[in-house]
Design a protein that fits this description.
about 75% helix, 6 helices, elongated, mainly alpha, about 90 residues
């Protein structure tokens, strides 16, 4: 389900949203659609890690081409790498 959600998000944002939609989204959320999508990907990634998936598998499932890029983004969001997150129980 998470993978299907992310696929739909990517398709929607790539198809181009109207500028008015972008403005309304930023007004409501305080972030751009792209920022929200990045955060959503990382939240899904955290759920997958909590479900027992390995970090390299999670990186691919949420759309990162490189595990290292995923690890950097995850650390920036949650304060520790995916491996550290697993080791320390979240």
């Amino acid at each position: 389900m998470a993978t299907r959600f992310l696929t739909e998000m990517r398709r929607t944002t790539r198809s181009g949203l109207d500028a008015e939609v972008h403005r309304a989204f930023r007004s409501e959320t305080g972030m751009s659609v792209a920022q929200w999508c990045r955060l959503a990907r990382l939240e899904v990634a955290r759920e997958l890690l909590d479900s027992g998936y390995r970090p390299t598998d999670v990186a691919r499932r949420v759309g990162y081409a490189r595990a290292r890029s995923f690890s950097r983004a995850f650390r920036a969001r949650f304060g520790r790498s995916p491996r550290e997150y697993l080791t320390h129980g979240g």
